[in-house]
Structure formats: C-alpha cells, structure tokens
Design brief:
Layout: H1 2-22, H2 37-48, H3 52-58, H4 62-75, H5 81-115, H6 117-124, H7 131-141, H8 150-157, E1 161-166, E2 169-175, H9 181-195, H10 201-213, H11 215-235, H12 264-279
Antiparallel strand pairs: 1-2
Length: about 280
C-alpha cells in the first residue's frame, strides 16, 4: 500500500511540473527540489496571492542568498486561474499522500521491529539498506529459511539471467523478472545506494563490472550479490562486516634521524638554542 501511494505521489508531482511548464513558470530550473521547504513556501504563497516580498522573506538560508534574484524574477510572472486551481488541488492531495505515506512507514517499521527484531537489525548493517528497504524485503520475502540456498532466493526474486541452451552452447540474456516486482525494485535501489559508498567491497564490485557490462547490468549484478550476502547473514544469524574493504591510506609520518653521540660544538649549539627558547616570552600568556 505504501509503495502504491508513493507511485501516486510521484505521478502527482509530475503533474505539478507539467502545470508549471505549460505556464512557462520554470521553478525547477531555479530550485533543485521543487517540493522541498522553499519550493512548498513559494507554491503556497502563489496560491494564496501573497506578495512577492513576503514570499521572499519566508525563504531562509542559502536558497534566498544564492537564488533570490531568480526566484523574484519568477514571482513577477502571473499564473492563469486554471493553473492556480489545478495547483491548489494538487498540493492538497499531495499533503494527504505525504501524511498517509509517513503513517504507513511508521506502522510498517514498528511491525518489522516487533515481529522480526533480529532480521531487522541484521539488514540495517548492510550498506545501502535503510529502514524502508528493510521492512520492504521482510514483507516481500518473509522467512529467509524457506529458501534452501541464496541462489534459489535470487531466482525467486527474478534477478538471475535467462539461460538458453542450443546443443553444447549456453547463452545468457536478461534477468527473468519473476517473483516479487517490489522486492526486485527495492534491491536495485539498495545496489545504487551501496555503490556510492566508496570504501566498501560493494563499491569495488560495482566499479569492476560497470565498464565491462554497463551501469545498469552492474547494478543488477550487485543487487544479486547483496541478496546473496543477506541470505547468508540471516540464515547464520550474523551481522554484516565489510572485512574486505580497502584500507584507508595511512599518512606517512616523517622520521628524524637522531645521532647517537654529539660533539662538544654540537652540544653547545643545542644548549644555546634551548636557552633562547626558554627566555622567549610565551605567546599564549
């Protein structure tokens, strides 16, 4: 249900973008996220007929400093009555969807923590797996012990390639896409998130594949690797540890060679330098 509402919210956001584009009101060219705090304040101000100066005062932070001129130029434009009506109703529905999605997220997370506490904890240790991905995988897969191997779980999720055999020749093509479409989708999102963490075995795996088979197939391959690891972790009741991550570069500490013996002249020179330092006033006092 949550996923269904998220898709509807995405459709509604695209409709709002179309409303602005039809009016040549290119807010998306000014703001990175039209539906962020600043974008919502601008849209609410436009609907309520708030003066441009008041709308600008409601926007705080770096957005007003960096984008203030562009935003003010946009606010000088007038939207048609038809566009304002569509925008007002769309934002009202969007607020309802946001509230329902937040509620379902909270309920799903609480249910997962209560009924699958150990699996919930294990999944959150895997790079790229967040709260939403955790309860989504638990809801779609259920008991991981129902699958006798990680390969069977991957096959059930449809992230294994189709194999065609002709005589002694085997050819592999696109993935089968069987099983839970939602679980497969969330795994791909997890793979993209995990591939961005540079100091991890997942990042190394993705980088080694993308130049050979492309970014899309590399993400699918990483998703299969992740679900395989998840199956082993949950069935063996272990937390994830990235033992094979590339070690951080240790800065080289310069070494100073200290002579084992001093001549009389060197010792006198050192004492003179030390006495000058001791006599000098302390800058910190």
């Amino acid at each position: 249900m949550r996923h269904f509402l998220v898709r509807k919210r995405t459709d509604l956001k695209n409709r709002i973008h179309n409303i602005f584009d039809n009016e040549m009101f290119h807010l998306s060219n000014v703001l990175t996220d039209v539906f962020g705090k600043s974008g919502r304040k601008i849209m609410d101000g436009i609907i309520q007929g708030t003066p441009a100066d008041e709308i600008m005062m409601s926007i705080k932070g770096q957005v007003r400093i960096k984008k203030g001129g562009d935003i003010r130029q946009l606010l000088e434009q007038n939207l048609s009555v038809y566009a304002l009506m569509q925008l007002r109703h769309s934002l009202e529905v969007l607020r309802v969807l946001d509230a329902e999605i937040n509620y379902l997220t909270k309920v799903s997370s609480e249910f997962a923590r209560e009924h699958y506490p150990r699996e919930y904890k294990i999944l959150l240790t895997v790079p790229g797996v967040g709260e939403i991905a955790t309860f989504t995988l638990l809801a779609e897969i259920g008991d991981f012990n129902d699958f006798s191997s990680a390969d069977k779980l991957a096959s059930w999720l449809g992230i294994v390639p189709k194999v065609y055999q002709s005589a002694d020749h085997n050819s592999r093509r696109s993935i089968t896409k069987r099983g839970s479409r939602l679980a497969r989708w969330i795994l791909i999102q997890v793979a993209h998130a995990a591939a961005k963490r540079k100091v991890s075995v997942f990042y190394d795996f993705y980088e080694s594949k993308k130049d050979i088979i492309g970014k899309g197939k590399a993400a699918v391959a990483l998703a299969r690797k992740i679900i395989t690891i998840i199956w082993h972790l949950i069935t063996n009741d272990e937390l994830y540890e990235d033992k094979y991550a590339r070690p951080k570069k240790i800065p080289k500490i310069p070494t100073v060679k200290i002579p084992l013996s001093f001549t009389i002249e060197e010792a006198i020179k050192l004492f003179k330098e030390a006495s000058q330092i001791l006599k000098a006033p302390d800058p910190g006092l």
